[in-house]
Amino acid sequence: xxxxxxxxxxxxxIGSGHPLGATGIAQTIEIVQxxxxxxxxxxxxxxxxxxxxxxxxxxxxxxxxxxxN
Length: 69
Description:
Strands 1-2 form a two-stranded antiparallel ribbon. Helix content is 26%, strand content 20%. It has one domain (12-68). The chain has helices at 12-16, 23-35, and strands spanning 49-55, 62-68. It is of the alpha+beta class. The protein is globular.
């Protein structure tokens, strides 16, 4: 656990109900909203880079996105 407000401002998988099959896109949307300053009450001040990491349910594949403003 961390008290750093820059980590999982949306609450992570628990906060989003872990929508199986849609988790990766939900994480990507959060990062894009942060980088575009459209995250409303979850907004982090002046974000520059966002990281999305997602694994398949069977852990047979993994995806990492690094998004930059």
